[in-house]
Amino acid sequence: TSFSTPKKKKRDDGMREHVTGCARSEGYYKIDKKDKLKYLNNSRAFAEEPPADTQVRTRLPLAAGLRSEQRRLLSSFTGSCDSDLLKFNQLKFRKKKLKFCKSHIHDWGLFAMEPIAADEMVIEYVGQNIRQVIADMREKRYEDEGIGSSYMFRVDHDTIIDATKCGNFARFINHSCNPNCYAKVITVESQKKIVIYSKQHINVNEEITYDYKFPIEDVKIPCLCGSENCRGTLN
């Protein structure tokens, strides 16, 4: 004998009426296509049209945060440094498109992937700020480890930026006696930073270079820049 199971009724609010009183005890059952489309249409309409006050509340904190960040950076600059601040702020939120690959000057080099106008910030030289004593110890340790090149950039008499093991693409910039960029020390929030500026217009796929300005020493380091006015040595 077979007994016909009573159909599960629906309530007035559109929800299915459970015979046993519990949805978990009735297991899986299919939902009619009409009910499914009705539910999907309602949820889609709700998702596409959020309340107007919600949109305002979500946008205001973001805009206020950006304005406060800009005011905070502006307050750290005075006088002629205002232009540097604005450029550094732009460089922070919109980095230049750069790539590193094999260079005809030496080993790896940094190349532009977009046109760069003259007197623009190209990239910040990022690394660890260390003292002279630590720099001397690290330089010796790098030699013992077989690291041929150390990427240390002097900021002032007491501070050196070490990008040998903790840095960005700026450490791949090669030296040139006729460079298209130059390095400049700026102060942001009482902290000194090294930024690479463009001296002239830089084309796409052109290598970025600057003058290392090494101090004159007895042991010379050969220069391989190949420019017409090449000095022959880095120091």
Quick structural overview:
With 235 residues, the protein is of the alpha+beta class.
Question: What does this 3D model show about the protein?
Answer:
It is a single chain. The protein has a domain at 82-126 and 168-210: SET domain (Beta-clip-like, Beta Complex). It contains four helices and ten strands. It has helices at residues 33-48, 52-75, 82-93, 132-144; strands at residues 98-102, 108-112, 121-125, 128-130, 152-154, 160-162, 174-175, 181-188, 191-198, 207-210. It has a four-stranded mixed sheet, with no helix packed on it. Strands 3-9-8 form a three-stranded antiparallel sheet, covered by helices on one side. A three-stranded antiparallel sheet has the order 4-6-5. A hairpin with a 2-residue loop joins strand 8 (181-188) and strand 9 (191-198). This is SET1B methyltransferase. Residues 96-213 form the SET domain. It comes from Bucorvus abyssinicus (Northern ground-hornbill). One of its GO terms (cellular component) is Set1C/COMPASS complex.
List the helices and strands and how they pair.
Layout: H1 33-48, H2 52-75, H3 82-93, E1 98-102, E2 108-112, E3 121-125, E4 128-130, H4 132-144, E5 152-154, E6 160-162, E7 174-175, E8 181-188, E9 191-198, E10 207-210
Parallel strand pairs: 7-10
Antiparallel strand pairs: 1-2, 2-10, 3-9, 4-6, 5-6, 8-9
Offer a few descriptive terms.
RNA-binding; Beta-clip-like; four-stranded mixed sheet; S-adenosyl-L-methionine; alpha+beta; three-stranded antiparallel sheet; histone H3K4 methyltransferase activity; transcription; 235 residues
